[in-house]
Every structure is written in C-alpha cells, then in structure tokens.
C-alpha cells in the first residue's frame, strides 16, 4: 500500500508540473471495428476451414475415410461407415483394427498414416494458434523415443529371432526351403511339404542342403532395415493417437454433428446449406435488431423441443423418440419426464437418488422402474426383513463336535449319527 501511494503521489506531481500535456487517446485502441473490417476478418477465418469443419469445430475426415477403405491391406469383414471410422481412426491394434503387422509396412498404408497425421497437426495449428504446439510435438517425439528404446510401443514390441523362424503366420517373408528353392507363406503348408516325395528327392540330390528342414528367410530385407520401417510406421501411429487424445472435444463434437446430419431429411440439409450461405455479417444496430426479432419469432406451434441451433427438432424425430409421452415419478416430487429415454436415464440422476435417500433407502440399484413412494417403502421393508431373517438364522445355528474334534451344524451331526458314520 505504501508503494501504491508513492506511485500516486509521483503521478500527481508530474501532472502539476506539466498541466498542458495531452492525454493518450484511448478511443483508437478500443474503437469498434467497422463492418468492412469485421467482414474481412470473418472471410479470412472461413477461408481457413472447409464447410464440414464449421470454422474449426469439427473434423473433416471424409477424404481420409475413403483412402482408408481403399487400402489394399484390409482384412475387414465389413466396411466401416464414416461414423464408425471417427471412433476407430486412431485404433491400430486388434480387435478394432485387423491390419496385420507385416501389412502395415506397405507404401499405401504409410502414405495414409502420413496424410492423417498431417491433417490432424494442421487442424490443431489452425484451431489453437496461441498454444506452443512445437513444444507439445517435441514432447510427443521424446515420449516415443523412450518407449521405442524400451520396446514398449503398443503393437510394435520386438520379436525374438526364434519366434521369427517358427511362426509363419506372423511374418510376411514366410518359410524357405533351400533344397526345393521354394517359398511358403504358412507354416502348416511348409510342414506338409517336408514330408512330400519331391522334397525328399531334392534332399537326396542336394546333400549340402540342411537335413532338418529349418525355415529360413532369404527374400526378406535385413533385420535393421525391417526394424527401421517398423519404427517409421510406429512413430506415425503414436503421433496420431496423441493428437486424437489432445482433441477429444472436437472429435466428440464431430460425431454428434454427423449423427445430427444423418437424422435430417434431404430438404432439411438443403435448407441448412442455404441458410449458411445466406448469412452475412451484421452491418450495424439495425441488422442486429432485425436478427434478434427474427430469432424471437421462431414458428413452433407444436411446442417441439429445441435443437442445438435453437430451432425446433423435426416432428418425425419427436415421434420417433416418443417425446410426447409423459412419465411422472412420485419419488422425484411428481416430476414429469418426456419420453422413455429421459425416463430410463433419470434413475441414475441425483434427483431420483436424493428422493430415495429421503425415504431411508440406501441401495438404489434394486429400485429401478419403481416410481411410487408406497411401492418403494414396501420393497425396502421386505428387503430389510429378509436380511434380519438371514442374520437370525445364521446366529441360531447350533454347532456340534464329534469325537475327533470335527465341528459341524447340528443337523449334519444328527444325520451322520443316524447313518452310523460318526
């Protein structure tokens, strides 16, 4: 406080000495921008994002989804929809992703990972310009280096040489018979070949060939080169996982937006696009007043619930979810829930749980679908009565001991005594 008073005194003394000194014009710093400047700024932001990205709110992975479906290394039994792809684009291990480890070394898969990583990094740079992203990416690289040095990168652990020689299904290079000069993709086929006549004849002709028929990999690249390829693919997969984890909000918003658009009719989609292109920046107070008047005059004669954009949801969606059906709950203070979905959900919400606790009920899991206070109290009394009965039965058990010191209930003792087994 003393320092503050000293500064105030210094400022007052300065203005006494220089009474005619002009004061800095703060109007320029806080002056409202003109409509032209605001329109130019909005146009600049819009040019940075596609229409699907919604000015940085959503991902636009449609092109990458098509590229993923066209990969020649797929072993999927069904094609992923775009909504499923949004859930699984950063899953690179079974059971979500059935691409084998040897198939991931293909050039097409590597180019797909590169395109996906570049998009996510550029999207983050566009939507978070004030964050130190270079430092964040450097931390990702450092974490990957540590995991790779310890062979702890998920899905890319180092395979022992013995496993490489015996497991034909796990390696792309397969099994090589040096006597027959033939390559086999699977171990089962290779094992059957060793007992064939052609192989035995070739073994007799070529005495220098191995007699035990050991599986050898002649065509594969050197082990160091193979490991280098694996590292490049693993690094991109690791970076994509980290980027997706850092943008969980955008990812969930994208899924909600895609689900919303899938539930719209073609006419509603067209109206939304037309409305989007017809919107112009506000040019003054009149435009703002006009916009607010239009928002106040939303036509909703059926009293439908409002969607995320403040407009009534479609009537068919209202009927589909049964939002016109009322479900009252006496335990919640006669609160009425609209639709079966909201009714089922409310049993785990604080309002219903608090109502049960007010009735003295602690175990709320057994009272699902019960909304009547009398039914809840009756059930709770029955549960308490059954517990007391079980406790009394356990306490009233008479223990008996035989000649050998074995302790047992009275009923078991009498049964054994009657059978002459004691």
What are the low-pLDDT stretches, counting only 5+ consecutive residues below 50? 161-173, 208-222, 280-286
For the terminal residues, how far apart are their CA atoms?
94 Å
Say how many strands there are.
6
Shape descriptor: extended
- Assembly level: single chain
Summarize the structure.
This protein has 422 residues and is mainly α.
Structure explained in plain terms:
There is one protein chain. This protein is mainly alpha-helical and 422 residues long. Among the domains are: 121 residues, no CATH class; 46 residues, no CATH class; 74 residues, no CATH class. Helices cover 54% and strands 5% of the residues. The protein is built from 19 helices and six strands. The strands form three sheets. A two-stranded antiparallel sheet has the order 1-2. Strands 3-4 form a two-stranded antiparallel ribbon. Strands 5-6 form a two-stranded antiparallel sheet. Helix 6 packs parallel to helix 11 and helix 7 packs across helix 11. The longest helix is centred in the middle third of the chain and has 24 residues. The N and C termini lie far apart (94 Å). 9% of the residues are buried. About 8% of the residues have low confidence.
Question: Can you lay out the helices and strands and say which pair or pack?
Answer:
Elements: H1 2-17, H2 27-30, H3 35-48, H4 62-69, H5 82-88, H6 107-127, H7 133-149, H8 161-166, E1 175-177, E2 182-184, H9 187-194, H10 197-205, H11 223-246, H12 248-262, H13 266-278, H14 285-296, H15 315-320, E3 326-329, E4 335-338, H16 340-345, H17 350-358, H18 373-395, E5 399-401, E6 407-409, H19 410-419
Antiparallel strand pairs: 1-2, 3-4, 5-6
């Amino acid at each position: 406080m003393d320092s503050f008073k000293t500064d105030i005194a210094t400022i007052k003394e300065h203005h006494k000495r220089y009474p005619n000194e002009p004061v800095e014009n703060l109007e320029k710093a806080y002056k409202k921008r003109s409509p032209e400047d605001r329109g130019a700024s909005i146009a600049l932001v819009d040019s940075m994002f596609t229409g699907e990205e919604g000015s940085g709110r959503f991902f636009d992975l449609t092109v990458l989804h098509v590229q993923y479906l066209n990969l020649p290394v797929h072993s999927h039994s069904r094609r992923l929809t775009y909504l499923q792809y949004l859930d699984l684009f950063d899953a690179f291990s079974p059971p979500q992703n059935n691409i084998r480890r040897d198939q991931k070394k293909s050039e097409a898969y590597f180019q797909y990972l590169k395109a996906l990583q570049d998009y996510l990094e550029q999207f983050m740079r566009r939507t978070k310009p004030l964050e130190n992203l270079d430092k964040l990416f450097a931390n990702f690289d450092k974490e990957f280096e540590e995991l790779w040095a310890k062979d702890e990168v998920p899905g890319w652990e180092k395979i022992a040489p013995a496993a490489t020689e015996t497991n034909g299904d796990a390696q792309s290079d397969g099994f090589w018979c040096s006597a027959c000069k033939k390559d086999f993709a699977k171990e089962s086929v290779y094992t059957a070949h060793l007992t064939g006549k052609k192989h035995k004849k070739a073994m007799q002709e070529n005495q220098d060939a191995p007699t035990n028929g050991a599986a050898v990999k002649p065509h594969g690249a050197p082990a160091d080169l193979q490991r280098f390829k694996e590292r490049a693919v693993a690094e991109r997969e690791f970076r994509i996982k980290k980027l997706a984890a850092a943008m969980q909000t955008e990812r969930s918003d994208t899924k909600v937006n895609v689900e919303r658009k899938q539930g719209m009719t073609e006419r509603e989609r067209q109206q939304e696009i037309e409305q989007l292109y017809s919107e112009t920046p506000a040019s003054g107070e009149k435009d703002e007043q006009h916009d607010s008047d239009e928002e106040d005059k939303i036509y909703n004669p059926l009293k439908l619930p409002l969607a995320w954009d403040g407009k009534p949801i479609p009537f068919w969606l209202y009927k589909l979810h049964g939002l016109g059906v009322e479900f009252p709950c006496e335990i919640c203070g006669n609160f009425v829930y609209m639709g079966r979905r909201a009714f089922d959900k409310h049993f785990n919400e604080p309002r219903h749980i608090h109502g049960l606790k007010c009735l003295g009920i602690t175990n709320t899991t057994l009272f699902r679908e019960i909304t009547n206070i009398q039914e809840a109290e009756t059930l709770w009394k029955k549960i308490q009565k059954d517990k007391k009965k079980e406790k009394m039965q356990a306490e009233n058990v008479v223990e008996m001991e035989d000649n050998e010191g074995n302790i047992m209930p009275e009923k078991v003792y009498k049964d054994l005594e009657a059978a002459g087994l004691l």
